[in-house]
Amino acid sequence: MRNDYRARNHPAWWAFLLHRLSGLALSVFLPFHFWAIGQALQGEARLDSLLRWTEQPLVKFAEIMLVLLLAAHLTGGLRLLALEFLPWRDWQKGLLAWAVGAALTAGLAFALAL
Amino acid sequence: MEGGTVSSTGQGFAAEPVAVSNLSAKAEVWLWIAQRASAALLALCVLVHLVTIIYAVRHGLSGAAILERTRGNAAGLAFYVVYVLAIAVHAPIGLRTLCQEWLAWRSASLNWFVAAVAVALFVFGLRAAWAVFA
Predict the structure, then answer these.
(1) Domain assignment of residue B39, yes or no
(2) Count of domains in chain A?
(3) What is the pLDDT of residue B91?
């Protein structure tokens, strides 16, 4: 039996891939995030110059993507915790749709607040 | 029991099991528990963080505006210390699984690598929290 695309072309497999890739992206982003926030040690002016840098459209777009990925990792993770620790119920099949919906809502809330 | 093993074919018993980890089964179970416990904590932290981000963006995103809200905020500092600690536990364990499954990196060096990632995330995360809240 081969583990080919037939085993993967399924919503739960895409959820797994999204969870893993969002986790990887967030892990890569974290050191830069910590470095940027740490610039506050050098005073307000330094933080301001960094914030001005983030005004660029491409950086703004990346920020929205990061918030989306964080929200998706959160909702996907809650789905996994529910699957692993709660007794199985029929409503758990709908968790995927809830997870995607909640993540998109968080992403949109951030994008619209910008 | 030393080392986790899995059938090399994925079908029942294998003649030559392939080691999937260089840690004891007990250690793997502890990592699994730590991953889930930190995930539950992070669920709360990330929710608060997302709300904070959206609030901050709506209420002025200048260095002065941010630091005015954060400086001397002991509760904020305590929250982010817990958040950073949970991240330093959660992210390296996730990266470890990814390295094992996608890169086939299963030697002892992987454990040293993820331990270093955990320490670095913790130290630099604390430094960032200190920078805005202290």
Answers:
(1) yes
(2) 1
(3) 98
Question: CB–CB of B91 and A47 under 8 A?
Answer: no
Of chain B, the end-to-end C-alpha distance in Å amounts to 47
A43 or A73, which is more confident?
A73
Element (H, E) at A74: helix A57-85
Q: For residues A91 and A114, what is the distance between their CA atoms, to the nearest angstrom? A: 35
Segment B107-126 shows an average pLDDT of 96
Q: Is the pLDDT of residue B2 over 50?
A: no
Give the residue from B9, B57, B87, B93 with the most A CB atoms within 10 Å of its CB, the best one to mutate.
Answer: B57
**List of chain B residues whose C-beta atoms are within 8 Å of the C-beta of residue A27:** 91, 94-95, 117
Residue A19 has pLDDT above 80, yes or no: yes
* Full residue range of the structural domain in which residue A64 is found: 5-113
Q: Which domain holds residue B93?
A: 31-133
Q: How many domains does chain B have?
A: 1
Residue at B4 is within a domain = no
Q: Cα–Cα–Cα angle for B39, B29, B13, nearest 5°? A: 125
